Amino acid sequence: MLNIPNALTFLRILAVPLFLSLLADGRYQPALIVFALAGLTDALDGAVARLTDTRTELGSYLDPFADKLLLVSAFITLGIIGSIPAPLMITVIVRDVVIMGGYLFAATVMEEAMSMSPTIWGKVTTFTQLVTVALVLVDMAGWLAVPTETFMAAFIITAVATVVSGVHYVAFGVRQYQAES
Known about the structure:
Blueprint lengths: L3 H21 L3 H24 L5 H24 L5 H24 L10 H22 L6 H33 L1
């Protein structure tokens, strides 16, 4: 069902190739604007869905997919061009691959579908990843000279949140799987 929240999520998905193209071309100011607008659609789609009671099953799958597509591709691109540390890029990728792999495994072996609801740790991780990418882009765009200490703090906080949420999701999945067995 295509409603306003789902349309906003589709816009975020469509923004990803534009964002990556701008970033790869060194057009950091427009890339930052596209990233910020994509982030805004993330906030708006959920708020509109709750306020108008238009949550859908499609939206429950599309929204996290759009978040992962935007953030993982941003981390990969920023890691490749050397704007974020490679270990942080790898941490973000591995966490999402493990979570997705675990979900797909569970979907094939469990009788009942596993919940797709984000946890508080997942939300904290998404927030820290968004802030980290935004800080890097603001600096690259020349809009603000971000101190090295701020980058280091953002990188460490994002890495810790990413690892903690990954462990949390794996533990949750294992508990669900064991309860089902």
